[in-house]
Amino acid sequence: MPRDAGSVGEFTREMLGRGQTTLRAGVERSVRALRLHGVRHWFRRERDAFRQTLKTALACAVAWELAKHVIYHGSPQVHAVLAPVAVLITIQVTIYQTFRRGLQQVAAVVLGVFAALALANYVELSWYTLSVMVIIALMIGRTLRLGTQVNQVATTSLLVYSLGRGYGLERVWDTLIGAGVGIVANAAVAPPTYSDTAAKELADLADDLAQLCRDVAIALRDGTWTAADARKWLDRSRGLFGDSQDTEDVADQAEEAVRYHPRRSSLEAEVNRVDQAAICLSHVAAQLNGLLRGLYDLANGNRGLPATTEVPRALGILLLDVGRALNRFGRLQIPDRNSRQVLEELKVIITAADDHQLSAIEDMLPIGAHAVERWSVHGALLDNARRMLYELDPVGGPHTLAIPPIAPAPVASAST
Questions:
Q1: Shared domain check, 215 and 152
Q2: Residue 314 contacts by C-beta under 8 Å, 6 or more apart in sequence?
Q3: Is residue 210 domain-shared with residue 107, that is, in the same domain?
Q4: pLDDT tens digit string along 30-87?
Q5: For residues 328 and 352, what is the distance between their CA atoms, to the nearest angstrom?
Q6: Fewer CB atoms < 10 Å away: N or C end of the chain?
Q7: 372 pLDDT higher than 70
Q8: Mean pLDDT of the region 261-270
Q9: What's the total number of domains in the chain?
């Protein structure tokens, strides 16, 4: 018994700790974006989320007023809150998912009402009839593939069964109003493109990768890192690699977002650009993970080498280049009036890194004991750094389409 109680307590503390970690990470990310890019660019990043939040809140208010006056004829009924609830369930980030979720929710509620009314005429409510009704409702929802709304069938059945036939009709009308308002609001009022959201996620991921590169680069350059540091870096890198996979999923959803969008033809180019940027950062995250695994092996004496934290100083300089390039690449994902300058800075960083690569190659020439073995590890580290820079190259790299189109600088006219 004490062991179980301890396990439950540990589980609870772990869940709370994860929530606090996630909240802290979100706050730290926002603060870092403000510090790196300023208030104007930070607001531009969050603009789509602010707009969607405001639209959802207004849609909930409209649904409440409609339900109160159409269903309850102006009397303040608590059940009118179900219409705003239907709005919250219905409104999704894409028009397609909003429409699909709205239809699923209406179907689930209608089926739940019919199931409850049918059973209420023949059976009394008890623990076993309740269980049977839940089983039947869930089977109906899964058979009709109602997705995340499967439980709505059972929930509605239980509420109607306990609160009566009148509640069932109100529930249907509330859901119809809420789902209808949600669909109209999301489709007609500033319909989300989701490519903006994907670009924001890409910018945040680039900043996180850049910060990790800078932390590692400074420690390598100063020679102050340890095996414990290498372990922490590797854990951070693995987490960011997982984030990069999530970001690719976000980019895929951006393609879905234009399916029913009124400006589909004009948005497809941006969707393709976001997709290229997501692939680029996924590759960079994988290469950074490989580089940090090499440092971890080196510090712990894996792969037949004596444990050491000595690496060529030029590798740290090269990683600083990668961090700077990632910073500019992420900034470019959300274009603003400074984008041309940022693009030029990215080009300069990539060009300067060519000289640093040559210096790193010279520093890594095999000399002394275990020279060949060290070269195999150092060479892999260098190759990962060079490949990251190649991925981010806006001119000669494989993902030039990831850079948004930027208008050329205006040419000053000669005075006469």
A1: no
A2: 356, 359, 360, 362, 363, 364
A3: no
A4: 665 566 556 665 666 666 677 778 888 888 888 888 888 887 765 555 567 778 888 8
A5: 15
A6: C
A7: no
A8: 70
A9: 2
The pLDDT, as a whole number, for residue 414 is 43
- Amino acid letter, residue 182: G
Q: For residue 273, is it within any domain?
A: yes
**Structural domain includes residue 28:** no
Give the domain-ending residue among 138, 153, 188.
Answer: 188
- For 322, residues 6+ apart whose C-beta sits below 8 A from its C-beta are 210, 213, 217, 284, 288, 353, 385, 388, 389, 392
* Same domain flag for 237 and 362: yes
Residue 358 lies in a domain: yes
Nearest CA among 256, 302, 272 for reference residue 404: 272
CA distance 382 to 212: 17
Q: Are residues 145 and 234 in the same domain?
A: no
Residue 214 reports pLDDT greater than 60: yes
Give the N- to C-terminal CA distance of the chain in Å, as an integer: 93
Closest CA to 202 of 366, 57, 327, 299: 327
Q: What is the pTM of this model?
A: 0.64
| DSSP letters for 211-230 | HHHHHHHHHHHHT---HHHH
**With contact defined as beta carbons under 8 Å apart, do 331 and 343 qualify?**
no
223 torsion bin: left (phi>0), alpha (psi -120 to 50), beta (else): left
Q: Tell whether the model's pLDDT for residue 413 goes beyond 50.
A: no
At residue 243, does pLDDT exceed 70?
yes
Show the domain range for 98: 37-188
Q: Evaluate whether 254 touches 271 at the Cβ level (below 8 Å).
A: yes
Instruction: Report residue 331's pLDDT band, with 50, 70 and 90 as the boundaries.
Output: very high
Using the 3D structure, point to which of 188, 220, 254 is the last residue of a domain: 188
- Domain identity same for 264 and 281: yes
Whether 13 is in a domain gets the answer: no
Tokens read off for 213: 């590169």
Q: CA 105 from chain center: how many Å?
A: 25
**pLDDT range class, residue 370, cuts 50, 70, 90:** low
